[in-house]
Design goal:
This protein is α+β, with helices and mostly antiparallel strands. The protein has one domain. The protein is built from two helices and six strands; from the N terminus they run ββαβββαβ. A hairpin with an 8-residue loop joins β3 and β4. α1 crosses α2. It is globular, with a radius of gyration of 13 Å.
Length: about 110
């Protein structure tokens, strides 16, 4: 299980490593372009019901922590889905229960 530390909060957002790897690429790409956006997710089972949204912008510190030492294999189709979502008016929507399977030629 991966962790996303956002801003000054000491409580991380728990995200499966495979999902976090894809989210990291999309966030880094958007921030490199100087583009701010929102990221929304439903609270996973075992947490208080509901959903959360955070504002992603270059001045807010973030740290990605992965539970595994080896980098995840990225699925180009999932990256495209997340990028399209991040570029929409509703922002990036992430399914924390999702465990994406690699369907295309993997990239690192």
């Amino acid at each position: 299980m991966g962790l996303l530390f956002y801003g000054s909060s000491e409580s991380p957002i728990r995200i499966p490593d495979r999902v976090l790897a894809h989210v990291k690429v999309v966030i880094a790409t958007k921030l490199r372009r100087g583009e701010s956006f929102t990221m929304t997710w439903r609270h996973p089972a075992g947490e208080q019901a509901g959903r959360s949204t955070i504002w992603i912008q270059p001045s807010i510190p973030m740290r990605f922590v992965f539970g595994t030492a080896e980098p995840e294999i990225l699925d180009p189709a999932l990256l495209q889905t997340y990028a399209n979502s991040a570029n929409s008016s509703s922002g990036l929507t992430v399914d924390l229960e999702e465990h994406p399977a690699v369907e295309h030629t993997p990239t690192r």
